[in-house]
Amino acid sequence: VAPNGTGNQGGSSPSVAPNGTGNQGGSSPSVAPNENEKQEEDKILIDEACGVPLNPAEKLTEKEARDMEIFGEYIPARLPEGYGFEAAYWDEEGQKLSICWSRGLDDIHLYMEQKEYCDTIDINVPERYDVRLYEIPYGETVPQEYQQDFDNPIFTWEDFSKEIIESRVRSYEDRGDTNTPRGNFSILFPDGVLIRFSGRGTVNQIWEMFQSLGL
């Protein structure tokens, strides 16, 4: 896991929580085990692949996610070479969509929701978000007053640029892992849609990915 909180970077496959939601109201002995398993696949407690709790969440195909009203147009049409669809989940109660793709140990996660308001970063204060200004561990080198912004900075779509990506992705030398640059950030769009990116790719690949949004 990247020190700057980029979530599950290992590209693990989605799995059902041990205490899955299958027929919690007291199942009948006549229900076949494979039917319970199917219920657990459709409704899960924890989305391990996309690294964020969704309670409960409905599993979607990539097409179903892309066809969703509002959020569908915020799913990139183009991903870095080699990435394949991993999982997508819709949290009906929280009105949140999570979707991820993987390429071996590399992965990319997007989390989407609509926000009425959230604080965004002043890009003229790079001390609040630029990983190049600090040494690892960030918890010891980033000033306390900047920690919250630094962990997950939110940029407006108008301020978002390739330079912003350069300030947020970094390669780490982890034994048994890839050296693909990784990082995280969030983007707030004019209509209130908030996208959190957490994943791996070069600056150009991530930039091209966001430029391919169907906006």
Overall description:
- The chain is of the alpha+beta class.
- 19% of the residues lie in helices and 27% in strands.
- The protein contains six helices and nine strands; from the N terminus they run αββαβββααβαβββα.
- It has helices spanning 33-42, 62-66, 138-141, 147-151, 162-168, 203-211; strands at residues 43-47, 52-60, 84-91, 96-103, 106-114, 154-156, 169-170, 182-188, 193-200.
- Strands 1, 2, 3, 4, 5, 6, 7, 8 and 9 form a nine-stranded mixed beta sheet that branches.
- A hairpin with a 4-residue loop joins strand 8 and strand 9 (193-200).
- The longest helix is centred in the first third of the chain and has 10 residues, at 33-42.
- Residues 1-49 have low confidence and may be disordered.
Task: Considering the chains and any ligands shown, give keywords for the structure.
about 220 residues, alpha+beta, 6 helices, 9 strands, disordered N terminus
Secondary-structure topology with pairs:
Elements: H1 33-42, E1 43-47, E2 52-60, H2 62-66, E3 84-91, E4 96-103, E5 106-114, H3 138-141, H4 147-151, E6 154-156, H5 162-168, E7 169-170, E8 182-188, E9 193-200, H6 203-211
Parallel strand pairs: 6-8
Antiparallel strand pairs: 1-2, 2-3, 3-4, 4-5, 5-9, 7-8, 8-9
